[in-house]
Write a structure and sequence with these properties.
There is one protein chain. The chain has a domain at 3-86: MurE/MurF, N-terminal domain (Udp-n-acetylmuramoylalanyl-d-glutamate--2,6- Diaminopimelate Ligase, Chain: A, domain 1), CATH 3.40.1390.10. The strands form six sheets. An eleven-stranded mixed beta sheet has the order 9-12-15-18-23-26-29-32-35-37-38. It has a ten-stranded parallel beta sheet with strand order 8-10-13-16-19-24-27-30-33-36, with no helix packed on it. The longest helix is centred in the last third of the chain and has 16 residues, at 322-337. It is α/β, with parallel strands linked by helices and 338 residues long. It has five helices and 38 strands. Helix content is 15%, strand content 28%. 34% of the residues are buried.
């Protein structure tokens, strides 16, 4: 599949400088792009690479246009424009089986207009929207609702009663609606598991990375709102609520009943304890531990305990100097003892 530069410029609302009839059949990095491919520049540190690029066209901002040796597509946000263009050349490897051969689909399921790959199980009273693709060996249990234009890769499990909106992309190995980790201690110190009767409700345009698990609610639901982006290997416990357009990086764990606001950015390997809330527009840096509610927007970092990023920078300076401070104190104590 290929497109003219004029077509791509229209897609990303770009100012085209150069030949609009040039045909583009792929996308590549600046330093490895060849004739017929398009690239992008979103970071000034790669400007030297731009000067030597063999790409047929480059997406960039007006501030770098003079350095572009080839056709240019000028936009205000090159990274966002690249994101749009990338989908023109993305090829899914799901290889769906339109005949639903070797799949088990309950007669009460409403799946017309969807493509169900081989090896899938679809339970009772399931609804799958039009133009949705369910990859090989997926399990969709009873009473699940999946909106239009969803794409499930292989080996996804959606447990009973869960709901997903339109245009969701669910990667391989994801489990939605698993039993939450709720246990009551008995008098003899053994555990009694709590039955989880809620569900998982996921909004529109949500992407979920490979091997991420989302537990169903205990009584109320676990909620993932519109536009959320979840990386691989994330665990979201029962009754968690994640606000619109929040992005969470890999290996983050969110304990039960935590509430995350809108437009938050959570770094990799962050731990968020249960029953706290995080305000809108909060950034939590990688490997931090959020052990209390965050009530104001800002950038936060920390391990013992969480604090504003500026406060953590000050603490970090003192931590680095602790050995020197200890040596000075020992010398002074010796002088005092003399």
């Amino acid at each position: 599949m290929n497109f003219t530069l004029s077509q791509i410029a229209d897609l990303i609302d770009a100012e085209l400088i150069g030949d609009g009839e040039v045909r583009i059949d792929g996308i590549n990095a600046l330093d490895s792009a060849k004739t017929g491919q398009i690239s992008y520049l979103a970071n000034s540190k790669y400007q030297k690479t731009l000067c030597n690029s063999q790409a047929s066209a480059v997406i960039l901002s007006s501030s770098h246009a003079d350095s572009c040796p080839t056709n240019a597509l000028i936009v205000s946000n090159p990274y966002h424009a690249f994101a749009l263009v990338s989908h023109l050349f993305k090829q899914y490897n799901t290889a769906p089986n339109k005949s639903n051969e070797f799949s088990s689909i309950d007669s009460s399921a409403k799946v017309k207009g969807a493509i169900i790959s081989s090896g899938c199980f679809v339970g009772k009273n399931v609804t799958i929207g039009k133009n949705s693709i369910i990859g090989p060996n997926c399990v969709i249990e009873d009473n699940v609702v999946i909106g239009d234009n969803a794409h499930f890769f292989a080996n996804v499990v959606v447990h009973r009663g869960c709901q997903l909106g339109e245009s969701c992309v669910i990667s391989s190995g994801v489990v939605i609606g698993s039993e939450g980790f709720g246990n009551a201690r008995c008098e003899d110190m053994s555990w009694k598991t709590i039955a989880h009767m809620g569900k998982v409700v996921i909004g529109n345009d949500v992407t979920i990375g490979a091997n991420t698990t989302i537990d169903r609610g205990t009584i109320a639901d676990t909620e993932i709102h519109n536009g959320v982006r979840l990386d691989n290997l994330i665990h979201i416990a029962h009754n968690v609520i994640i606000g619109e357009n929040t992005a969470i990086a890999a290996k983050t764990g969110i304990a039960g009943s935590a509430v995350l606001g809108k437009r938050c950015m959570i770094g990799g390997m962050v731990g968020i304890v249960g029953h706290i809330s995080i305000a809108d527009d909060v950034v939590v840096n990688a490997t931090s531990t959020v052990d209390k509610s965050v009530t104001r927007p800002g950038i936060y970092t920390g391990f013992f305990p969480l604090m504003t990023h500026k406060s953590w920078q000050k603490v970090g300076v003192w931590l680095i100097k602790l050995d020197k401070i200890a040596k000075i104190l020992k010398i002074k104590l010796k002088d005092i003892n003399k």
